[in-house]
């Protein structure tokens, strides 16, 4: 039977400065001694975000590939190891099926064999996932606000605009005139391919599909 410790810090700065890593490892060692175990090896994840699933982290992937039936993993806290309740419960189920014990010190010990600890584990995992959901919602709200204010959020810059120095989309006069011409030609009944050819003659290489998108943005009525 082997005993492995798992610790993690989120940023390279923390890893370089050793912030919390030493404390995490000492906590794992102390817990192991308390239950008459000896840690054979520490897996230290340096500068890896908690948003990365355990199996996708360098040290986490190696740990999961190494453990055998009867082995024990010790980690100081839930958030050192898992990004969400789904990730946590999936890994927990696989470890339990393989006969590997997982001890989380902040949850009171072995979460693979203690009913109360498993209950707390599930609840706290769900809380952690809910918190990350709220963070994603806040990010979405910020992007929505930036979009409404004409901020450039990445990707291809729309025809008729350029990115200003403050990150806002700024109209390009010549291209805006071309857009007005496309809208007028469509209103006259000209087909999209014909409009595309007119634009090409004016120096704008725009496909008929792009013409449709541009007109719909400028004049949202159905084409």
What does this 3D model show about the protein?
The chain is of the alpha/beta class and 223 residues long. It is rod-shaped and about 85 Å long. 24% of the residues are buried. It is built from nine helices and seven strands. Strand 6 (161-163) and strand 7 (169-171) form a beta hairpin. The mean pLDDT is 82. It has helices at 12-17, 21-34, 58-66, 78-81, 85-97, 115-148, 173-187, 192-201, 208-218; strands at 3-8, 41-45, 72-75, 101-104, 109-110, 161-163, 169-171. The strands form two sheets. The protein has a five-stranded mixed sheet, sandwiched between helices. Strands 6-7 form a two-stranded antiparallel sheet. The chain has two domains: 3-136, 3-Layer(aba) Sandwich (Rossmann fold); 161-218. The chain is 52% helix and 12% strand. This is Site-specific recombinase, DNA invertase Pin. Keywords: DNA recombination, DNA-binding. It comes from Microvirga lotononidis. InterPro entries: DNA_bind_recomb_sf, Resolv_N, Resolvase-like_N_sf, SSR_resolvase. It holds the Pfam family Resolvase.
């Amino acid at each position: 039977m082997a005993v492995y410790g798992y610790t993690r810090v989120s940023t390279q700065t923390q890893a370089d400065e050793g912030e919390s890593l030493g404390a995490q490892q000492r906590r794992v060692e102390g817990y192991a001694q308390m239950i008459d175990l000896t840690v054979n090896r520490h897996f230290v994840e340096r500068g890896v975000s908690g948003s990365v699933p355990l199996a996708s982290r360098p040290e986490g992937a190696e740990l999961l590939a190494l453990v055998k039936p009867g082995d024990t993993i010790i980690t100081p806290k839930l958030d050192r190891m898992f990004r969400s309740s789904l990730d946590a419960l999936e890994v927990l189920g696989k470890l339990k099926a393989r006969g590997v014990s997982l001890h989380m010190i902040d949850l009171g010990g072995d979460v693979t064999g203690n009913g109360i600890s498993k209950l707390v584990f599930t609840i706290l995992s769900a809380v952690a996932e809910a918190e990350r959901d709220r963070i994603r919602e806040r990010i979405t709200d910020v992007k929505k606000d930036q979009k409404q204010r004409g901020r450039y959020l990445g990707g291809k810059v729309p025809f008729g605009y350029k990115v200003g120095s403050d990150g806002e989309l700024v109209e390009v006069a010549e291209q805006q005139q071309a857009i007005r011409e496309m809208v007028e030609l469509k209103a006259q009944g000209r087909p999209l391919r014909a409009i595309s050819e007119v634009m090409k003659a004016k120096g704008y290489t725009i496909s008929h599909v792009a013409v449709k998108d541009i007109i719909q943005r400028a004049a949202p009525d159905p084409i």
